[in-house]
Amino acid sequence: xxxxxxxxxxxxxxxxxxxxxxxxxxxxxxxxxxxxxxxxxxxxxxxxxxxxxxxxxxxxxxxxxxxxxxxxxxxxxxxxxx
Length: 82
Description:
The structure is a single chain. By secondary structure, the chain is an all-alpha fold. The protein has helices at 10-23, 27-40, 72-79. The chain has 3 helices and no strands. Helix 1 (10-23) packs across helix 2.
């Protein structure tokens, strides 16, 4: 086993100390269990671009009307009878 030193803020230290007392374990054992649980949890891989299949779903069709982002003033005028 390797020895290491960590620093905990006061609230976290108190929680770990309470857990150790409640379970009849040493602080070291509680910290080892917490670290083991943390490192055993698989990290989530970043999503790839393929995961975002909705990108481009609102794209204008070729030959269709201009994209609304380019003609928003005209579209508002049409809707409000202006």
